[in-house]
Design brief:
heterodimer, A: Rossmann fold, Rossmann fold, 22 strands, elongated, B: Rossmann fold, 5-stranded parallel sheet
Chain lengths: 497, 125
Amino acid sequence: MTDTPEAVDAPHNDRLSSGVAGLDTVLLGGFVKNGLYIIQGAPGAGKTILSNQICYRHAGLGGRALYVTLLSEQHERLLANLEQMSFFDAGKIAREIYYVSAFQLLERDGLAGLLTLLRREIVAHEAGVLVLDGLVAAEAYASTELELKKFVHELQTLASAADCTMFLLTSSGIGTDESALRPEHTMVDGIISLHDTEHGWRVERDVLVRKFRGSDHLRGRHALCITSDGIVVWPRTESLPLPAVRRPRDPAAPRLSTGVAGLDAMIGGGIPAGSSTVVLGPAGAGKTALGMQFMSGCTAEQPGLFLGFYETPERLMARAQGLAPALPALVARGAVLLKWYGDAEGLIDRVAHELLEAVRARGACRVVIDGLLGFKDMTVQPERIPHFYKALTDHLRELGVTSLCTAEVRDLTSLAAVAPSPLQRLSTVAENLILMRHVEQAGEQVGELRRFISVMKLRDSAFDPRLRSFTIGEGGIVLDDAGGGMAFVPDAAAPGT
Amino acid sequence: MAIILVVDDEFGIGELLEALLQDDGHRVLTAMNGRHALERMAEARPDLVISDLMMPVMDGSVLLRAIRDHAEYKEIPFMLMCALPEASIADRVQGYDAFLRKPFKLAEMSGVVAELLKPRVPPEG
């Protein structure tokens, strides 16, 4: 079973739920009732599954649906495939959902005959949803473009008069320029395109709403999966609407301890509540340790969530025994939830959705994302990452969360730990920026690497700009005496500058 | 079986109503505006007129007045259809027997048609 996204907006009275919560979110509540929609996509893109989900959802809410096939799948094959899906309910067939084949009639009586059949069947079954599977076959029986347009227009009139929302399934135009205008495209109320796109060796599905009359919608492509629950859509995180009235930034916001006393002293007592922090540093610099120590400040009343990509929860807890000894007990008591995404080919929007849902459900106040590069490694669109990260932290901020994200950079063993793109842009988006790095020692200690931490920026606050050396031992990170600090040189060390 | 005249300039409405009313057993005449409707009425006197309001050449309100002023036609039931709410046209159009706002529902249309085709009881006295 998949943790399917809940729709942001509950379906309105004038909307028809698609049965796919993520798609309802993209459509800002569902399809506009009594509209006429095209669902287009190559064979295997998921048109049949999506349209059946719409039918079963409608039937589940007490309505009736009519599924008319034209030279497409035979009904027994169609039903055999649907049986694998959790939304399928054989008890609804021939009661609330009717499957009708109309190809022979189309062959004999043409589009006029098909229209008469549709009208009579809709009225007879009091169907509130009609799916016409195989628009390509109907197109073949239109002698001119005008005739096809007239057919679609008459369907639209029927949709309004019969109180019926209609879906035309087609693979027409797929493989060519899909965005090219086809005669029927001008007539319908909406066009939903399903894609299955190759990215090197990877193939990913997405959905794009090309046209949607009568309502706004979330534009652009959104990740789509076909699971045993049917179609699941993960709206693109950057497209998710934020509240119209944003949570105000409070310069006097309380400070949350990082769990490292010396670091807290450098930043005026802790991280400003509700802000986003990025911790940059090479492997082994202590970023995860800092994240675990920050999580150790969670309580049952102020719970937290630790999201990681590389270390399993078991390994993380084993490390916490030495670095953040309070953390395992907090996890055991439920004050901290660990989420781990080890899939090499996951979906970043699914991760973001599940993170935000968990934050909402638990009322989490602190979130650590350990390894922002995990998002970059996961996605086939790495150029999205800065925008994705900004959107994710904006949503976390609106939920009142103080976030701390770690990101690995090259270990240059120097003060100028320059972050690679796209992390360079991340550093400009983050409100607070902390650098951790190794520095080779000069003099008698030549060849020895020491760890240093520095604060590059802090939201609305003054901070100690010096480099501070630190050690990681039992109990985690401990900063050395302030007397060992070195002046920070922004031009040499700042990523993205 | 009744003869019903459907008057609408919009493609699709006439076709849909023609099919619906034929299924209910009626004979259906269609016209694309008021003047065209009067020509069709000269061919066969309808038992009911269903007309859109906004049409070119002659609109539904002029057609309605023409019918009410006509000695032979004035008793014919007249159903007016319009995309606007009835209250917003009340000051412009009077004398119709039923009003349906577009987009109408098939079941609603069938019900109103059946009601208008019922034999009328003549007023007492």
